[in-house]
Amino acid sequence: MVKISCIFCKLPESRLVLENEFAIAIYDKYPVNKGHMLIIPKRHFPDYFDTTDEEIIAISNILKEAREHLDKKYKPDGYNIGVNVNEAAGQTVMHLHIHLIPRYEGDIDDPRGGIRKLKEELVPYKG
What we know:
The chain is an alpha+beta fold. It has one domain (14-117): HIT family, subunit A, CATH 3.30.428.10. The chain is built from one helix and five strands; from the N terminus they run βββαββ. 16% of the residues are buried.
């Protein structure tokens, strides 16, 4: 039996904010904005493109629940949703996870370009 060393496979129940049959939602331990959440499938696999149809539906459902939760708790003005697939795209934890990042009016001067503009050190938007 192969042991999996994965921080998302070992989460304590106290971290769970939402859960369904195939996925969970937690607050990001290193948020880029207030309320930043992660949607994580329960099955361990690294790549979004390896999700089953059931998992896609469950992830979509919990994303909507997470948005409702954040709407009530933080009242954001918008959201960014993002997935990094493989190291070349910035994935550091090799267990699929989807970022749900609340955005707030005025959190940056010019939000065009989405997540690229949230932190100064990200790639500049030239659109």
